[in-house]
Amino acid sequence: MRNRQPFSRRFHALMLLLLLAVIFAGMFLLLQHTPLQMDDFDYSFSWKTGERISGIADIFASQTVHYRLWGGRFVTHFLAQFFLYAGKPVFNAAGAAAFLLLLLELSYLAGGKGGIAFLPVCIFFLLLFFCIPFFGTVFLWLDGACNYLFGTLLALLPLVIARNRSEGGFFSGGLLPGLLSVLLSFLGGFTNENTACGVLAALLLFLLLRWRNGKTPDVATVLSLLAETAGVLCLLLAPGNFARAGQDGFSLTGILKNGVYVVYCFLLYCGIPLALTVLALCIRGIPEKESSAGLLMAAAVLSGMALMLSPEVSDRTFLAPFVLLSAAFVSLAGPALEGIRNRAALAFPLVCLVVLLCGRQALLTVTQQEARIAAQEEAILTAKAGGEEEVRLSGIPASSRFTRDIFLAEDPAQWPNSTLQKYYGIRIIGE
């Protein structure tokens, strides 16, 4: 009996590692067969010189101009240009690793150190893989993954730090952990508008609740929040944001319309984790105001509400509310899951079978899209080699939620044709 518990822990740790290895392999294959597309071609060039990215210093210079002309996502677009410079194989490995880190991050947010186990990781994987209708856009497409997978991973770090500090973990004391928490909090705030704003607002709300209950925040917590606020301000006050808002228009009527549309999209794209969270609330009851589940739900709702002020609301911007609600559900369902947590790892063969069968279908649609894009590229290169001045091409519609639409304009001077002409050296006309 004495040796049984250590063996059980080792067994579950082994099953978790094997699960992560299977998921990594599957994601790597999907990423490997997802070619560059759309915005990837734009960010292959420096925004300062108009030439191909040629080094790290060139990326910094490019993003400085991008920050002034287009928007404040310096961190995520820096990552995009870095991976385009480093090469697609580097991104494939990094993207698969980032997906695993997101699963582990959500597991930790939902249950602390004890949450990083086979069952929670498996639940998060199944929710993300089967229930996100824009999977390919946020996890497989290079530019999309840098903005949303990597962006969400970084934007949730302040929540990780807050949880770790409340448990007396690594970030709870010491000069180095304090400095690291300030740096990570700043990066977390300097990532994605709605996610960073929602996370910051939720943390400030919970800090005020704790303060009202007589719990004075320590210096490290205040410094981390100030650093995160500085990151959010750097993100929102970018000159490029005001330039784009001036082009697209911004009014009270637009905000109200956005609000209605945001609620609709929230229910549409986050409906499954929202329903699961509501079910868990009905069974377990409303958690304490300062609970981790309450913090996660607040961050999810506030991240969605922040989109009301965004000039563009798209499906992929709901990744953060989706994952935060998923984490809230697992946190609320924690006590109910305890009974099967120890036996969950025995389902590893079944999970592998599900991943194999469903992953095979996902890989099939991704490789079909890859073949269509390769044929399009071959047509461009053949026309160029034959001395043609232009080539006519048709767009490529998405064949599943693991791919995205590739569209072309009829006018070769319009985007994305203009960028493709710059990239391939031949005029592109969409049909």
Describe the protein's architecture and organization:
By secondary structure, the chain is mainly alpha-helical. It has 20 helices and 2 strands. It has helices spanning 4-32, 39-42, 56-69, 74-86, 88-111, 118-131, 135-140, 142-155, 157-166, 175-189, 193-212, 219-236, 239-248, 252-269, 271-284, 292-305, 319-332, 334-344, 348-385, 417-424, and strands at 390-393, 427-430. Helix 20 (417-424) links the parallel strand 1 (390-393) and strand 2 (427-430). Helix 6 (118-131) runs antiparallel to helix 17 (319-332). It starts with a helix and ends with a strand.
Query: What percent strand?
Result: under 5%
Instruction: Indicate the low-confidence ranges by residue numbers.
Output: none
Strand order of the largest sheet: 1-2
Q: Approximately how much helix is present in the residues? A: over 70%
The whole-angstrom Rg is 23 Å
Q: Given the C-alpha coordinates, what overall shape results?
A: globular
Task: Give the class from helix and strand content and strand pairing.
Answer: mainly alpha
Q: What is the straight-line distance between the termini?
A: 72 Å
- How many runs of DSSP E, i.e. beta strands? 2
Total of DSSP H or I helical runs spanning 4+ residues: 20
Major β-sheet, in short? 2 strands, parallel
| Mean pLDDT rating | 86
Helix and strand run = HHHHHHHHHHHHHHHHHHHEHE
What's this model, at a glance?
With 431 residues, the protein is an all-alpha fold. Helices cover 71% and strands 2% of the residues. Helix 20 (417-424) links the parallel strand 1 and strand 2.
